[in-house]
Amino acid sequence: MSGLFTLAKEIQGLNVTLQQKRGERKGKNALRAGLEASVGEFVRAKKLSDQEVRDLFEGRALVGVDGSVNQFGSQYPYAIHLFKALAKSTVAGRDGTSSVERVKMFSALDADSHRAVLHFMQQRREELRVAPQEDRLIERDLAEQQAYQMLVDQLMVEMELQAAIEAVEKFRPFLLLMDGGFSRLKGKSGELWDQFVETVTDAGTIVVGVIEEVGSYRLKSRLDEVDERLLDGFVRGHDREVLFNLLETGEWLKTSVERPIKNEFYTVFTRFSDQPQAGACDLLREQADRVDDVVNFLYTITPSKSRGIPLWLDIVDEQARLTRKQVEMIMKGNLDQEIIESFLRSQRERRDF
Amino acid sequence: MMQIVGQTTQLEAWVASRARKFQINEILIIEERDQGDPKAEVVETMTFNRYIPLASEQNQFVDEGVLSGLRQVGFAIEDEEINLAKVRLIEELTIPIKVGAMVRVPRFAEVESLLVKRRPAQGLTLGVIQGTAEIAKDMPADLLGVAPLFDKEQGVRAQNGVPFVFDYRSMDQYPHIGIFGGSGSGKSFGTRVLLEEIMMKQVPAVVFDPHFELSFDQEFPGLPEEFRQSFKKRFVVLDAGVDIGIEFTELQGDDIVSLLRASSGSITDAMETAIKAVHKNRDSYLSYSTRLSNLAEALDNEADIRKSHGELEHLNPDEKERVSTLYNLLKTYKDKVGGFAGTLRSVMRRMHRLEMEGVFTSAGTKKVEEAFMKRQLVVIRGSMYFLNVFAFYVVRKLYRKRREYRDSIQKGRPIEEKFPPFIIITDEAHNFAPKGDVPAPAKGVLKEIAQEGRKYGVFLVFATQRPALLDDTITAQLSTKMVFRTVRSVDISVIKEETDITPEEASRLPYLPSGTAFISSAITGRTNSVRIRVSKTTSPHFKNPFEELEEAFAEQDAKLWEAIEPILPIDAFNLNAYLTDVSRKAGRTLGHDELAHALEELCEQGRVVQESTPFGSRYRKA
Q: Measured between CB atoms, which of A61, A303, A305 is closest to B73?
């Protein structure tokens, strides 16, 4: 038990430090003034009436895209990954269905998958932190493992984009919601991203990346330009820390289009629900002029007591997800028990307690 | 689209469907070719919408504005409903049901053998099997229109599923029927339908009717033309003690004990011994009761009689005979009856009461037997206590006759008298054959029939609200049970033990709608949920007693007013002068006080006013 007491002491210490740090902060208003001077204006979003929503969409659909990846088994290479990407429309297409689904199995145990990993490793030699050397098995394995993980991420992004492209072609929606920001999508998909942008532009579809939790680190430098002491009392000054409880419910930070905080996209910061944590939306720069309509609509379809994600994305997310139970059932139903035991069962699962 | 989802066993699975709601008890086919497309019954239904969850701390109910916004772009959250049904296979497999297998509604031909064991022409059509509305669409003509239904809101309505036809001819294998259910559960209604079907098949039957509700000459209103039927020639109603009596000469000492016990509750050991000791074979009521009273007299005057007997030759002839009779009685019976005249008098009092009530007549069961020969249903009416006395005698006599007839055939003896197979039906059966040590005169013979009746073609239909109070041996012998709504937990647990109804079904028992029953039968091999058909007849209408009270008095008041009105004004001091006239017109004799009371009442109602005159008060019309 004494160990736990020691830990508690240490945590209490951290708590005191952080509290002291917070005490040094300037008021909320100073920070808001700083952001207005350097980033953009604070705007109140509006809940749209039914008529306004109809006028905006003109009968076209809303599509949400999300993906899920599940791992079954132990550590690389003794694991199987299952991918599912889903694009779901509020209006059914001509064939009567209202969603596009992509699924894929990927595992280093599978020869084709493994070849893909080796190929990827060759291509991205430089990016891999561990240099694969033919004669050193451990390092080679580590590199392979890293490559595998990167490939998994890339595959997921590709599948999401493919589903999105197909859905745009099929439903020609007014608005397409992606779960997560654009950086990840563009960074991991290469040419596919360009194809995606082309498709949505052709279809006249507005596309938005809805970011639940801001991970960027852009505001600090802007604020420092105004006054370096504005962020006194902040630990690191990541965007999420800066924006925490800064926006009122329904308020958003409309960043300047002329001086965007990301180079490639147009990003605004939002607070759609009672949760004090801010979110963000990525738009294509060419579509930045639609930001007011988009934000108002997203605010309209976000439950005030939720975690701040438009309900449609929550619904898509729920359907895109494979539950733990589903994964186990499909694995156990289709793999022989001895295969599972010899290749895929992790020792952790065998724990008695 | 319906599909097996989740985890399955070799017996049970969940079926999901987006568009189609499941009906409890409906039969579905699981498309699994390797297993021969097994059939399953829906035992539990459920509907949920995962986007409208129960509100909880994690799951806040979504704001209406959000839903409305999504509705405008084409998404209605209400349509995301998912229907689920737990199904249980009719026959177990050896391996679990395949997850993901498609499920469909069967065609009638695929489930015919399961649902219809007999055609309506050869069986008793009791109602409609629940959950078969969809299957019934391609049913052959002879199964249509045989079981219209009834409910309070819509009245008589069309049959909406596969009829439940009870294969009564298989009762020789699986005898006896139990009908359980509380008041208002539709038990009486179900019994009536069963009796109608028995009459339609012209199976002789005898019903004990303590409620005076079983007659079949009033037609149920609003029946479709082709469904109407007259039962006037198919049944007779007999009153216990008038049309049926007990022939005393047929009774044994034991029987008299049973009868007296049933009619008067308690009997002492001394009385029992005395009854048996004094009884002689073929005794008539007169001979037996005379012997008892003589013996009582002899015991009272024992010393005198012994003395007189010593000097017999001095007595006159009458006296001589009396003394020697009494002396002989003393000699024969004194030791056996205990020498106390009070005991004998108690017995006599009890016997006398029965005799006064008309129990001992020579009517016997002749009328029942005549009706049986005409293949009729015999309804025997009487108070519960009276029926208890009679049931014992009637049932035993009829059963013996039938048994003798069958035995004669079996043993190749000459047949004296033909006697048909028959069914014995009784409501409040727990009174005729109570559980445990509670005595009831007919219990013995009923138990015997329960155990051996099928050999002779004698069957029981026992209806009761309290299965828990019914004799265990009999309960165990009921091969078919119709279970209506039951609320008492003791009764539910008896039903659970004695039938193959599932825990899900048992938990539905307290909520079954009136007129719906689970029919668990060894003949069908499974439990069916059945909506009982509308009866063709209805019980004689009894007026609500309170309405009756109002109506009767209103009539009387109206008559009185008619008599008083023309002779107004009436002088209060001279009421006697009007009495004759009013009495004649009102059709009954009124006294002075009654007329005064009536006039005051009329004043209160405002029809008459009382005014003062120099000659006293006077009533005149208002």
A: A61
Taking CA atoms, A278 is separated from A301, B123, B544, in Å, by 17, 74, 73
C-alpha distance from A243 to closest chain B C-alpha (Å):
24
Burial of B80 (0-12, 13-18, 19+ CB in 10 A): middle
Residue B301 Cα to chain centre, angstroms: 52
Interchain CB contact of B5 with A (< 8 Å) = no
Residue ranges of E strands in B201-262: 205-209, 235-239
Q: Kindly compute the dihedral angle of the four CA atoms of residues A50, A52, A57, A58, in this order, to the nearest 10 degrees.
A: 90
Q: How close is the nearest chain A Cα to the Cα of B76, in Å?
A: 9
pLDDT in tens, B327-355: 888 888 887 777 788 888 888 888 888 88
3-state secondary structure at position B125 = strand
Element (H, E) at B449: helix B443-456
Tell me what percent of chain B is helix, strand and coil, each rounded to the nearest 5: 45, 20, 35
List average pLDDT for each run of 10 residues in chain B, which is 622 residues long.
90 90 90 90 87 58 79 82 91 90 92 88 93 88 90 88 93 93 89 94 93 88 89 91 84 84 77 86 88 86 82 80 84 79 86 83 84 92 83 89 90 83 92 84 89 93 92 91 92 87 88 92 87 90 75 81 81 80 81 83 83 78 80
CB-based contacts of B72, cutoff 8 Å, min separation 6 = A50, A53, A54, A57
- Residue that the structure tokens 């029953």 belong to: B517
Cα(A338)–Cα(B439) distance, rounded to whole angstroms? 68
Model-level ipTM above the cut of 0.85: no
pLDDT along chain A (353 residues), means of 10: 86 92 85 91 94 94 95 87 95 90 92 89 72 65 85 94 96 96 91 95 96 88 87 86 91 90 89 92 94 95 88 91 88 88 77 70
* Among B201, B36, B27, B28, residue whose Cα is nearest residue B118: B201
Amino acid letter, residue B391: A
Q: Which residues of A touch B70 (CB under 8 A)?
A: 62, 90, 301, 311-312
- What angle separates helix A182-189 from helix A191-203, to the nearest 10 degrees? 130
Interface of chain A against chain B, CB under 8 Å? 47-48, 50, 53-54, 57, 60-62, 89-91, 174, 297, 300-306, 311-312, 315, 318, 329, 333
Average pLDDT over chain B, rounded to an integer:
86
The amino acid present at A215, given as its one-letter code, is G
Other C-beta atoms lying within 10 Å of the C-beta of residue A91 = 18
